[in-house]
Amino acid sequence: MIFASDLDRTLIYSKKAIGEGFGAAEVIPVELYQGEHISFMSPETARLLVELSKTALFVPVTTRTIEQYERIFYIRETFKPRYAVTSNGGNVLIDGEPDPDWRRHVAKSLAESEEAEKVIEAFGRISSPEWVKSYKHSDSLFYSIILDRENMPLEQVEDFRRELAGMRWNLSVQGRKMYLVPDGVSKGAGLLYVKERTGSSRIAASGDSLLDESLLRAADYAIVPRHGEIYASYMEAGLYTFTERDGMGAAEDLISKIAEWFALPAAENDSPSAK
User: Fold this and answer.
1) Which domain of life is it from (predicted)?
2) For 168, left (φ over 0), alpha (ψ -120 to 50), or beta?
3) What average pLDDT does range 171-177 have in this prediction?
């Protein structure tokens, strides 16, 4: 069994994203950057995840680059994940090292999408210093763009999203960041590779952004925090199961629900109604 989960705003939270009911003294620091703790997990989330990891393989799945993922010391030291999917699926780590076979597979998949240089050139037609602060080509796979969210031109961004689809790229806005990601780089594909390598029969997954949809579709059971892009896009569509709470409380809710699902008889949680 695999529990595959996005990290930021799903299991771990910045100070601004923690939500109601959690004070600074009541959370566990999990990420250190430039001498400062910048991400946190609730003690109950940590306890639940420790218990779940005794019976299921915990696979962190993140849009973060390898370097950014490695800053999350608490997950690395406490859970010592054998497998992790980073770079939005562009890298699969095995015992902390990128798997070369997977990277070769990704390189072939990227050939089916428009070249990265043409994508950023197209983005330049709507980009402005008023709302775009910086960008970088992360791991030579996708673009990570720092935004002034309040000044972002929503209509132009949505038009660009449709233009990107024709280039076989995707756009996701998460907090003050925008990601431009080619179709050949997906969390779901990376997870299915891990499933094949481990011979696992069942997957439960969680995530909050549109970049997590491939991850959720690869799972037999999926649950989404009551916040973020997916919740905003599908809250009334009935496509996903959402947690009872938002913010850091959502992490506690989703692990509890996943533990309940894993405890069901196999015939029941493998049925279509389990999704």
Assistant:
1) Bacteria
2) left
3) 88
